Amino acid sequence: MYDAVVSAMNHPDPFNPYMGLFNFRSLKALSTTDASLDVVTPRPRAPPIGPYSEFSDIPSRHDYSSHEVHYPRFLYLLPQKLFKYTLSSKSFSEMLPKYISSNFETPDICHAGHIHYDGFGLVPYCRSNEIPLTVMGRGKILNNFYDLSQISRRKIRETLDYADGIFCVSKSLARIANNITETPKATVLPNGADPSRYPTDNEAAIRRELGIDQDTTLIMFCGGYTERKGVEEICDALDNIRNDDVAFVFVGHYGDLRTELLAELKASHHENYRVLWEVPPLGLRRWFATADIFMLPSHAEGRPNTIYESMASETAVVASAVSGIPEQVVDEETGLLIPKKDSDALATALNSLISNSKERERMGTNGKERLVSKGWTWEAHGQRLATLHKSIINDGHLPAAEVLG
Fold first, then answer.
1. Do 291 and 188 reside in the same domain of the chain?
2. pLDDT digits (tens, 9 = 90+) for 296-342
3. How many domains, in total, are found in the chain?
4. What radius of gyration do the chain's Cα atoms show?
5. How is 22-54 classified by DSSP, letter by letter?
6. What is the distance between the alpha carbons of residues 310 and 336, in angstroms, rounded to a whole number?
7. Containing domain of residue 107, as a range?
8. Same domain, yes or no, for 28 and 173?
9. In a shared domain, residues 8 and 43
10. Calpha distance 7→2 (Å, rounded)
């Protein structure tokens, strides 16, 4: 048994149940191992009105059965782009060590759900208590590192240099992390999905409930309604996508391009579509189990969880060949890879699968087999995370064989 303090600002709370589900699932999986967890999810100090005012209703603690979460407050100034790496970061990194010291016993290790704010905020506590630190290296910060301000890069580099282990969801991100640090210390820690949780055996019944004909080809998108997720390319491709008994479902819970997407759909020749907001996990798994094709024309990614979910639900994938996606999708075997920012290629790939149901089924079957054979599940994620933690606790570093070369 070992004790870990975890900071995961991007984690659900009682009023934001879909925020940071990947962190929740990671910690839930870790809690099934021999790790004893104290989890901190800092929240902005709530203003009386306006953005984030609802945070005043979040309790100080919440028990998720797998782990209890503490919700201390820090000063979070808007606009975020101006203050994220300055005053808000300073408030976070001053609050977090004091809160941990006052509420928990000294742990064996600290773990950060993100490099910033979590990892940067844990560095002072770990340094003063001589405790090892591990951080999750995720796509947005690492993919955009060299485009960030000098202040931002300095804080991220300081965090990664101090950390004893950097756990990235893809090889592409691990290589970026190792290029940033003085000493390579990044390894791959995949997320995953559990096929048994996706009701593919009930697809016909689910389609009847959702009002989708059995012969209709259902194309699904799940992600933010943002430029980065390729929503503009989807809009551009709509009129070139075949309309012979095709339906679309779009699922997201953030992003400012939802209105534009709706307008383009209304103006297109497509009539069968749904643009959804904040679908609960159970409902989302039903959509994945029902979909024939999953599309994700992203500009940058780590290894997106939505592709793992597509594989778990035996759904063929059409996605951009960027970042860690080619590590998941085998072109022409589990899906089709296309160039980023190419709406014509997106339409061509979708049309080829719309017209060939046997090919879709073959790719879906291959995708599930690949997921299972690679061990891309949350259970395997939790076991590997615990193993990596214990290596650092016992040896002071990751085994050389674990570090991505």
1. no
2. 999 999 999 999 999 999 999 999 999 999 999 999 999 999 999 99
3. 2
4. 22
5. HHHHHHHHHHTTTEEEEEE--EEPPPSSSTTGG
6. 13
7. 2-192+377-402
8. yes
9. yes
10. 16
Instruction: State which H helix or E strand residue 271 sits in.
Output: none
Phi, psi of 229 (to 5 degrees): -85, 0
Write the DSSP symbol of residue 274. Answer: E
Q: 37-51, 133-147, 221-235 — which is least confidently predicted?
A: 37-51
Q: Indicate whether 41 pLDDT > 60.
A: yes
Q: Dump pLDDT digits (tens) for 207-251.
A: 999 999 999 999 999 999 999 999 999 999 999 999 889 999 999
The CA distance from 395 to 72, in Å, is: 32
- Burial (CB < 10 A; 0-12, 13-18, 19+), residue 142, is buried
DSSP 197: G
- Spatial neighbors of 120 by CB under 8 A, at least 6 apart, are 89, 92, 93, 155, 156, 158, 159
Tokens of 169: 């969801």
Name, in order, each residue with C-beta under 8 angstroms of 91's C-beta and a sequence gap of 6 or more.
Answer: 74, 75, 76
Q: What average pLDDT does the segment 132-154 reach?
A: 92
Query: C-alpha distances in angstroms, 171 versus 139, 297, 299, 327?
Result: 11, 20, 17, 8
* Contact partners, residue 277, CB within 8 Å, separation at least 6: 252, 253, 258
Q: Are residues 14 and 93 in the same domain?
A: yes
Asked if residue 335 lies in contact with residue 318, where contact means CB atoms within 8 angstroms, the answer is yes
Return the HEC string of 114-127: CHHHHHHHHHHHHH
Paired sense of beta strands 2-7 and 35-40, if any: parallel
Q: Name residue 337's amino acid.
A: L
DSSP letters spanning 374-395? HT-SHHHHHHHHHHHHHHHHHH
Q: Are residues 221 and 349 part of one domain?
A: yes
* 14 and 116, same domain (yes or no): yes
Q: What is the pTM of this model?
A: 0.91
> What does the DSSP 8-state code read for residue 400?
G
In this structure, the answer to whether residues 289 and 239 fall within a common structural domain is: yes
Shared domain for 117 and 60, answered yes or no, is yes
Question: What CATH number has the domain bearing residue 241?
Answer: 3.40.50.2000
